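Q: I'm building a small set of examples for a reading group on sequence design. Run inverse folding on the following structure and report the sequence directly after it, with nothing in between.
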């Protein structure tokens, strides 16, 4: 056997880089969280009793009004003037008072036409919803 005598040998510790190991652990955690199917809740599976007075309420009818940049108005893909739109909205309110009007207006359209369409819908007693596009993150006003 050979024994070392004399000078002490220098021992340097082994350095293990833990970054790849942590990355793999987080990826596995993410994988299991996203692929795990939640257990069905047995309390949600109920059979409702029947009732003679039960009624099914149909969803509200939704019509689309488009206001283009050049000032033309389209009601359900048909070009109409402001008076024609008011007449159609009154007829719609008579047929279905719960109907909703969705206004899709170009950002370059005239504001006075926008207000006139708002007044026509409220005059007919209908609810008006304005369609918008989502704002870009970090972007200011368009």
């Amino acid at each position: 056997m050979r024994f070392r005598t004399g000078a002490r040998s220098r021992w340097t510790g082994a350095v293990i880089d833990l970054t790849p190991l942590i990355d793999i652990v987080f990826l596995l955690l993410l994988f299991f969280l996203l692929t795990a199917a939640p257990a069905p809740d047995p309390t949600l599976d109920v059979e409702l009793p029947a009732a003679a007075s039960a009624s099914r309420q149909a969803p509200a009818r939704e019509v689309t009004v488009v206001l283009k940049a050049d000032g033309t108005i389209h009601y359900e893909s048909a070009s109409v003037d402001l008076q024609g739109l008011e007449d159609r909205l009154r007829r719609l309110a008579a047929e279905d008072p719960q109907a909703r009007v969705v206004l899709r207006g170009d950002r370059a359209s005239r504001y006075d036409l926008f207000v006139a369409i708002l007044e026509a819908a409220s005059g007919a007693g209908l609810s008006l919803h304005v369609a918008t596009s989502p704002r870009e993150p970090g972007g200011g006003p368009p």
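The chain has a mean pLDDT of 79.
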